[in-house]
Design goal:
The chain has about 150 residues and is mainly alpha-helical. Helix content is about 65%, strand content about 10%. Strands 1-3-2 form a three-stranded antiparallel β-sheet.
Length: about 150
């Protein structure tokens, strides 16, 4: 086992995952801005989830996004102000709201999705298919382990 004197941060898996995530988020947001879109990467993910999953509760979005309630609430508030989503009272529980994408949100997603898709393709164009598959499998295993830790298993 490494100790402090021999540990190399640049060899840590989490170090690279964090940097890749940061750089990917930064780049896609630049592309959204250049296209005149009023969204950031997290907004895109929320809009995509609402488009593909239909109406969702805020709690469902929190779970899907793996973000805290406060962060998701801020993102949702911003999307409502921009007219990209709307909150509707839940018919069965007045304390809850159903969140759905608006037509303006769908129109935004129509522009944002090809940008995100093409960016993903561009990122891995020189990576062999087998390497992509192994990387995704490895990340899924790590994610499942972390989710088990989160749940206290």
């Amino acid at each position: 086992m490494d100790d402090l004197s021999t540990f190399q941060l640049e060899q840590a898996f989490g170090f690279h995952v964090n940097r890749v995530s940061f750089l990917m988020t930064e780049e896609i947001e630049k592309r959204f801005t250049k296209a005149g879109l009023p969204i950031v990467a997290q907004d895109f993910a929320i809009l995509f989830r609402l488009f593909s999953g239909g109406t969702l509760s805020q709690a469902q979005i929190v779970d899907l996004m793996m973000r805290d309630k406060t962060t998701v609430t801020r993102r949702l508030d911003g999307l409502v102000k921009k007219g990209l989503i709307e909150r509707k009272p839940n018919a069965e529980d007045r304390r809850r709201f159903d969140i759905c994408i608006t037509q303006q949100g769908k129109d935004t997603l129509d522009i944002a999705f090809p940008l995100a898709r093409d960016f993903q393709k561009e990122l891995v164009k020189d990576v062999p298919q087998q390497d992509k598959e192994v990387t995704i499998q490895t990340l899924r295993k790590i994610m499942l382990s972390l989710m088990e830790l989160r749940e206290g298993k």
